[in-house]
Amino acid sequence: MASSLVGGLGAICLFLAGVGLTLFVRYRWQTRIRRALAADLDERLAAALPTGTASHLEQSPTIRRLAVVDTRGDNETETPVYVPIVRVDLETTDAPGMKLLLEYVAAVLEAIHPVLEAREEAVHHYDVEFTFGPDGLFVEGECRRVSVAPELADQLLESARYGPFELWRDVKRADSNGDSPTALWSDCRSYRGRRPAAENTRDED
After folding, report:
1. Partners of 89 in the beta sheet?
2. pLDDT value at position 203?
3. What values do phi and psi take at 131, rounded to 5?
4. How far apart are CA 150 and CA 16, in angstroms?
5. What pLDDT is recorded for position 193?
6. What gap in Å lies between CA 189 and CA 167, rounded to an integer?
7. Cα separation of 117 and 79, whole Å?
8. Residue 166 φ then ψ, to 5°
9. How far apart are CA 153 and CA 61, in angstroms?
10. pLDDT tier at 23, thresholds 50, 70, 90
11. What would the pLDDT profile of 183-198 be if each residue is shown by its tens digit?
12. According to the model, what pLDDT value does residue 157 have?
């Protein structure tokens, strides 16, 4: 009886080890996919907004994080739902006017939304973060974000009559809707009850 118990425990340990190895391999595989995707999006941003061509830019916008906020499908075929978080560093003490800021947002979406659409990646919404103000050892600059639902990005790309002004108008209108992920000029750390961003691809091997 003792030998049967030992054998049963051994089988359970082997099973758990196999499950753990499978989850680890899947995690590493998904991490590599996210890193490759982030690198591709960074290239598109650098091409669309190269350093020195747009006013107030310290450098080209970059993918700060590819956050995974949900998954779709079953355990075998589940796919991540992303929140691409783009960082735009501004060389200004104060934030520029909203017109210019929405021009940046539109340029960012025009650069990366087609890539994600072509790869059939699920996007919950886009976060475009703007940093500005003095930033040093004893002073921390400000960070504000404009969050845009993918449906608005679709309109931006599909209609020649839909530009930064129309985008600003619709983002402002949706900002008051608590069910919408869209937000206009919110603190980078505030998410109005939505799940916080996770899965920082920059810190993973």
Report:
1. 131
2. 39
3. -110, 145
4. 40
5. 38
6. 23
7. 14
8. -65, -35
9. 17
10. very low
11. 999 999 875 434 433 3
12. 95
